[in-house]
């Protein structure tokens, strides 16, 4: 009888870990969560969509969002950028020349001045708004893909 209980407990523990693993993999690399779940064609399509959106965003002078304490919605925009996973680091480096997530709060801070000048350079580009929108779209798409991987892993979706 104890062997039966052990056999029943093992699948439950594995099914609890599978959604977490699928979600983390989907965040680390768009489509990787779906590969883990055996959905290779879906993974390839999703990877292509996120990567194309991200590439268009960077190529169009889009800027990665920074958290600015006086503008609360910047937290959501930054979270959305981070949702693309480690590839977000590339857009931050290309935008600001370093990996940065928060705009320093002091007006006289030279770090703030430097970041704002780099951002102003991008904003002057005629494609800045489109590029930033593509970057945000890539993040939102990856959030949906993470949720899709979660639904597949938990059995809510085929």
How would you describe this protein?
- The chain contains 7 helices and no strands.
- Helix 1 packs antiparallel against helix 7 (128-154) and helix 3 (40-59) runs antiparallel to helix 7.
- The chain has one domain.
- It has 158 residues and is an all-alpha fold.
- The model is unreliable at 3-14 (pLDDT under 50).
- The protein has helices at 2-28, 32-36, 40-59, 73-82, 88-96, 110-123, 128-154.
Question: Could you outline the blueprint of secondary structure elements for this entry?
Answer:
Layout: H1 2-28, H2 32-36, H3 40-59, H4 73-82, H5 88-96, H6 110-123, H7 128-154
Kindly list the characteristics that best describe this protein:
71% helix, disordered N terminus, 7 helices, 0% strand
**Largest sheet properties:** none
Strand share of the residues?
under 5%
**Low-confidence parts lasting 5 or more residues at pLDDT below 50?**
3-14
Enumerate how many helices there are, as a single number: 7
How many individual domains? 1
- Derived from helix and strand composition plus strand pairing, the structural class reads mainly alpha
Q: Report the end-to-end length measured between terminal Cα atoms.
A: 33 Å
Shape: elongated
- Average predicted local confidence, pLDDT: 89
In short:
This protein is mainly α and 158 residues long. Helix content is 71%, strand content 0%. The chain has one domain (2-154).
């Amino acid at each position: 009888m104890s062997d039966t209980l052990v056999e029943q407990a093992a699948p439950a523990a594995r099914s609890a870990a599978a959604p977490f693993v699928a979600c983390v993999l989907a965040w680390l690399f768009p489509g990787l969560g779906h590969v883990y779940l055996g959905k290779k064609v879906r993974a390839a399509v999703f990877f292509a969509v996120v990567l194309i959106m991200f590439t268009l965003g960077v190529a169009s002078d889009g800027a990665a969002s920074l958290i600015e304490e006086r503008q609360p919605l910047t937290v959501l925009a930054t979270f959305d950028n981070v949702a693309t996973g480690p590839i977000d680091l590339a857009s931050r480096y290309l935008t600001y020349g370093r990996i940065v997530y928060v705009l320093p709060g002091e007006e006289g801070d030279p770090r703030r001045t430097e970041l704002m000048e780099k951002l102003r350079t991008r904003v002057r580009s005629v494609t800045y708004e489109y590029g930033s929108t593509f970057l945000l779209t890539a993040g939102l798409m990856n959030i949906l893909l993470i949720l899709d991987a979660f639904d597949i892993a938990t059995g809510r979706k085929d």
